[in-house]
Design a protein that fits this description.
Elements: E1 2-7, H1 19-22, H2 27-41, E2 44-49, H3 53-62, E3 69-73, H4 82-91, E4 95-99, E5 121-124, H5 129-139
The structure holds 1,3,4-trihydroxy-5-OXO-cyclohexanecarboxylic acid.
1,3,4-trihydroxy-5-OXO-cyclohexanecarboxylic acid (DQA) binds near residues 75, 78 and 101.
């Protein structure tokens, strides 16, 4: 099984970016932890970050036929991007939305996710563990019980 992790804008700054909200773990640290858990689960992982909306759209489109699941932290684009929503809907690859922080406990503009309705589900508020929980959910994503 192959899982594509996509990370949106400013997540390259994790570690130094608003540590009181996002913690001090870097994206490279998170990737290492994801890879460690993926090895245990025998899942192949591709882990990418972009500050460009169009690049994320391209990666979602290219995932069709190559990945069984997309795990996406769309960051600020979560709240603004019809293009990401349409790409996820168009390719039909099951997607899991994740966030480090609990977007529903923050500013009102973060409460709305434009991608939530086209994702299998959302994991929000568990810090770097959101990534591990999403990986574990990926393994069962086509299970009819969930
Ligand atoms: C985030 C939450 C978003 O609202 C924010 O724009 C981010 C990070 C999170 O992981 O908590 O950049 O997606």
């Amino acid at each position: 099984m192959k899982v594509l992790f996509l990370n949106g804008p400013n997540l390259n700054l994790l570690g130094t970016r608003e540590p009181e909200v996002y913690g001090r773990t870097t994206l490279a640290d998170i990737e290492a932890k994801v890879r460690e858990r993926a090895a245990q689960l025998k899942v192949a992982v591709d882990f990418r970050q972009s500050n460009q909306e169009g690049e994320l759209v391209n990666w979602i489109q290219e995932a069709k036929g190559k990945f069984e699941v997309i795990v996406i932290n769309a960051a600020a684009y979560t709240h603004t991007s019809v293009a990401l929503r349409d790409a996820i809907s168009a390719v039909g690859v099951p997607a899991i939305e994740i966030h480090l922080s609990n977007i529903h406990a923050r500013e009102e503009f973060r409460h709305k996710s434009l991608i939530a309705a086209v994702c299998k589900g959302q994991i929000s508020g568990f810090g770097e563990k959101s990534y591990i929980l999403a990986l574990e959910a990926s393994v069962n994503v086509n299970d009819s019980n969930i």
